[in-house]
Amino acid sequence: MAKAHANDQPQGFSNRIEKVAIIGAGGQVGKHIAEQLLKTGKHTVTAITRPSSTSIMPDGLHVIRVDYSSDELIAALRGQQVLIITMAVNAPRDTISKLVRAAAKASVPYVLPNWFGHDAANNRLCEDSLLSHYRDSICAEIKNLGVSSYLLLACGFWYEFSLGGGADRYGFDFKKRSFTLFDDGNVAINTSTWPLCGQAIANLLSLKELPDDDMDELPTLSQFRNSSIYISSFRLSQRDMFESVKRVTGTTDADWIISHESAEQRWKDGQAALQQGNTKAFTKMLYSRMFFPTSDGDYQSSRGLHNDLLDLAVEDLDEFTAIGIRMGENDEIPLSH
């Protein structure tokens, strides 16, 4: 397929994204995406939500309340250039499919189909994490509909959420002041904060959509069609996280109950529990797999990052460690997905 250029488009074509719709704009990552989009001053942002929703939306959003199964959803999406879906990892798959199909009927060019985390190009990791079926089905559906392109955000696990989310995530229980090291605790992974995820999406959608012509080498949104955007706040091992925790809390190793477990055995135990119907084991399985010695969670070393291309902020580790500790101490995070 010939590469599209802005200069070849019909009169009236605007080479930028102006209208963005978000599902879940009052949620954990959705709120940060909405706020960062509004902060650019370049986008009209519409929150689409169910009539029964009680979520508090960021100021400045245009809010439309519709039933996701009705034709009103298609009407709400008409004229939008991007649909961003942010829902819980255990959200019904048919709900996301309904949204994707509605976006196609409304001729929305780009969809972010609720993929925030894993490197979607790492097939073994996605398969072992029980995510490959969702990835394959939703990406295939978008492609087969033949209208929209998908955009996937590879950001690793959310840092502050995962740090404060209990021992089954990054190994910390701040109330008990205990820390579980997976193997030797030296496997480095990429991890991102909610604000950086929001900034990444906002800056991505603030790029030109198409290159002006063959000579234009500036980054564009279209170069990411049907692929992943790789970002990261930090590349850290558990031991790196622990050093930050100790700085923030003013503690030493002697103040903590430290134990060791095999990441692979934790993953196997999680898989076995899931097969017996214990859905709470999903979190343990998901996070343990990321810390395998194969370093699948370190996509920075194998694929590089788009942080510089998107002009993303350089963040302070201890600042976000303090946020994660507070969230853990105040029970702000459910212990399972």
From TrEMBL:
The keyword Hydrolase does not apply. Keywords: NADP, Oxidoreductase. Residues 24-109 form the NAD(P)-binding domain. It comes from the Eukaryota. It holds the Pfam family NAD_binding_10. The keyword Oxidoreductase applies. One of its GO terms (molecular function) is oxidoreductase activity. Belongs to the NmrA-type oxidoreductase family. Isoflavone reductase subfamily. This is NAD(P)-binding domain-containing protein. It comes from Oidiodendron maius (strain Zn).
